[in-house]
Design a protein that fits this description.
Largest sheet: 6 strands, mixed
Number of strands: 6
Oligomer: single chain
Order of helices and strands: HHEEHEEEE
Structural class: alpha+beta
Helix content: 25-40%
Strand order of the largest sheet: 2-1-6-5-4-3
Shape: globular
Length: about 130
């Protein structure tokens, strides 16, 4: 298995940055498209546990667009072979002073591109 193949890593980095841009803009259609549309897709958020794309979709569509902008840092993307990757990042939001956000995602390559199949977001003191 090749870890961090440069071409594969560039693909995942581009997908990750598409997600980040969509999150900051609250571009719900793009956010939904970047998650695997499957009942086994999971997103643990700061205040919610979402099992399946239907729950994730409902959350995204009901969420306020206010206060979503953030800055990311210490992002680590690792690819495993040609079809699996993890993306980890820290973030800060202006409206949440004194906290550091943490986000982890598992990305898999499908016929229709790279998709998040599992995600976790949390806040810690910082």
């Amino acid at each position: 298995m090749v870890i961090d193949d440069p071409g594969v890593k560039a693909e995942v980095e581009a997908a990750f940055m598409s997600y980040e841009a969509a999150l900051n803009a609250n571009d719900v259609p793009v956010l939904e498209d970047l998650f695997r549309d499957d009942p086994r897709t999971i997103r643990y958020g700061i205040g919610e546990n979402l099992y399946g794309m239907d729950a994730i979709r409902a959350f995204r569509r009901a969420r306020s667009p206010q206060g979503l902008a953030r800055t990311i840092h210490d992002t680590v993307i690792t690819t495993y072979g040609r079809d699996t990757a993890t993306a980890m990042t820290l973030f800060r939001r202006e409206g949440v002073p004194g906290k550091i956000g943490r986000q982890s995602q598992t990305w898999l390559r499908f016929e229709d591109g790279w998709k998040v199949v599992a995600a976790h977001v949390s806040l810690i003191e910082g």
